[in-house]
């Protein structure tokens, strides 16, 4: 009977998923998550020092004030040491997850599909893989051959094609200005490629609703910068952050933080790490990673035409402005603040979501060698921003499929509002 076939299909999908995620599932078996509370400034400084000195702990969120909570992911073999360090520094903490592997299994089962994707992709249906995202761009180019163009700008360390989509209004008679958006720089931030897909769909499938944004600007979108890491986070280690290139310095450690690998105060005294095993490892040299070389080359290919660079990250409800390495402000800081203000105000008026925005160094923590700073320093891009999308799921980086729509639609409200201000400004 029909219902028996349906039940059998569901059982087969579940069995397939359990089999395919088994080794990934075991990688996080008995990993624990703690909330940490710093009650005063001295404890907050102690927490920062603990974070700096003990890179084996994955701080999924690091409090900026005493009113905020830090969240840390710890392997079972490091658990006792972490507890001792927290006690030693008089930091209050609570265990909020006993076994992270349970979350991962639920996520994989929810994201499973027993049928091929339908193109153009429905962004809210699930998290798509790198090859599916690339195919989606090609489909859009076939549907709108006079307005959409796809180009492979390079390849990842593992030779995956790094594709970029350019969306125009079809007017090739003018040499227009450029908006460049990238996503998926940090592998585990799955919501950011989903956001990039939604922007593509809005500017193509819903072109008439946004055509004023394309009158004077072409939109260039790179949906997955860190393709190797993104695939690795799907197949092997869900909370992987870095690229997948091996280190010559540390045989057992892989990957570079691509957002610390750009040639602006690269390897600065604070804001990144020289340790290949750290999550914020800056690489052996600036632009050591083929993925960051591609982002650099895209920027330089447009040169003075590039007027707005936006890099999508997760999570934090933040709009971050240069600089990351210093509290000093770039020359065009207040023009950037106008754009950030428009985005934050549009979101709070529409959904009640509250975003903080301002200088990266002052708002969160020092960063060095990041892409937004590089865009300003190397190309004098007038508007260069990083948006940290809202948290989702249990750990912030893992919104379940059912949360994709709300997070993406809210973020689009802010991005569109920022785009309206960028379009109105007489950027030179």
Structure, explained:
By secondary structure, the protein is an alpha/beta fold. It has 14 helices and twelve strands. It has an eight-stranded mixed β-sheet, sandwiched between helices. A hairpin with a 7-residue loop joins strand 2 (58-61) and strand 3. Helix 7 (191-204) packs across helix 14 and helix 11 packs across helix 14.
Task: Give the biggest beta sheet.
Answer: 8 strands, mixed
Q: Tell me the strand order in the biggest sheet.
A: 5-6-8-7-9-12-10-11
Question: How would you spell out the order of helices and strands?
Answer: HHEHEEHEHHEEEHHEHHEEHEHHEH
Number of strands: 12
Task: Give me the number of helical elements.
Answer: 14
Give the overall pLDDT as a whole number: 90
Search tags:
39% helix; 14 helices; alpha/beta; 428 residues; 12 strands; eight-stranded mixed β-sheet; disordered N terminus; four-stranded antiparallel β-sheet
Give a topology summary.
Blueprint lengths: L1 H19 L1 H6 L4 E6 L3 H13 L4 E4 L7 E6 L4 H10 L3 E6 L3 H11 L18 H14 L4 E8 L5 E7 L9 E6 L8 H14 L2 H4 L6 E6 L4 H9 L54 H13 L3 E9 L3 E4 L11 H18 L5 E4 H4 L7 H9 L3 E7 L11 H24 L4
Parallel strand pairs: 7-8, 7-9, 9-12, 10-11
Antiparallel strand pairs: 1-3, 1-4, 2-3, 5-6, 6-8, 10-12
Helix pairs in contact: 7-14, 11-14
What does this entry show, briefly?
By secondary structure, the protein is an alpha/beta fold. The protein has helices at residues 2-20, 22-27, 41-53, 79-88, 101-111, 130-143, 191-204, 207-210, 227-235, 290-302, 333-350, 360-363, 371-379, 401-424, and strands at 32-37, 58-61, 69-74, 92-97, 148-155, 161-167, 177-182, 217-222, 306-314, 318-321, 356-359, 383-389. It is globular.
């Amino acid at each position: 009977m029909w219902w028996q076939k349906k039940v059998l299909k569901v059982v087969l999908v579940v069995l397939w998923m359990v089999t395919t995620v088994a080794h990934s599932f075991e990688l996080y078996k008995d990993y624990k998550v703690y909330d940490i509370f710093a009650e005063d400034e001295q404890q907050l400084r102690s927490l920062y020092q603990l974070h700096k000195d003990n890179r084996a702990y994955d701080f999924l969120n690091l409090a900026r004030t005493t009113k905020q909570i830090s969240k840390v992911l710890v392997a079972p073999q490091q658990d006792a040491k972490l507890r001792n360090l927290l006690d030693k520094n008089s930091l209050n903490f609570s265990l909020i997850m006993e076994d992270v592997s349970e979350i991962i299994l639920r996520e994989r089962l929810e994201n499973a599909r027993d049928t091929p994707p339908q193109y153009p992709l429905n962004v809210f249906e699930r998290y798509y893989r790198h090859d599916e995202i690339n195919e989606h761009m090609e489909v859009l180019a076939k549907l709108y051959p006079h307005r959409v163009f796809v180009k492979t700008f390079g390849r990842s360390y593992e030779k995956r094609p790094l594709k970029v989509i350019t969306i125009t209004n079809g007017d090739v008679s003018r040499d227009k200005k450029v908006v460049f958006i990238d996503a998926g720089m940090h592998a585990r931030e799955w919501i950011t490629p989903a956001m990039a897909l939604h922007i593509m769909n809005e500017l193509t499938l819903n072109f008439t609703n946004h055509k004023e944004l394309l009158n004077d600007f072409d939109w260039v979108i790179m949906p997955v910068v860190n393709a190797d890491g993104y695939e690795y986070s799907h197949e092997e280690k869900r909370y992987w952050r870095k690229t997948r290139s091996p280190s010559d310095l540390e045989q057992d450690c892989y990957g570079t933080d691509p957002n610390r690998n750009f040639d602006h105060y690269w390897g600065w005294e604070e804001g990144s790490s020289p340790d290949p095993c750290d999550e914020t490892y800056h690489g052996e040299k600036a632009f050591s990673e083929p993925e960051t070389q591609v982002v650099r080359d895209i920027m330089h290919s447009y040169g003075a035409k590039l007027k707005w660079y936006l890099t999508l990250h997760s999570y934090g409800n933040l709009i971050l402005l240069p600089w990351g390495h210093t509290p000093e402000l770039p020359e065009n800081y207040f023009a950037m603040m106008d754009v950030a203000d428009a985005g934050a105000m549009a979101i709070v008026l529409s959904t009640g979501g509250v975003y903080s925005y301002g200088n990266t160094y002052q708002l969160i923590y020092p960063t060095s060698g990041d892409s937004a700073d590089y865009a300003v320093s190397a190309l004098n891009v007038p508007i260069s921003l990083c948006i940290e999308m809202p948290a989702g799921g249990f750990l912030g980086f893992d919104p379940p499929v059912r949360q994709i729509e709300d997070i993406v639609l809210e973020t689009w409200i802010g991005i569109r509002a920022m785009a309206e201000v960028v379009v109105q400004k007489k950027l030179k």
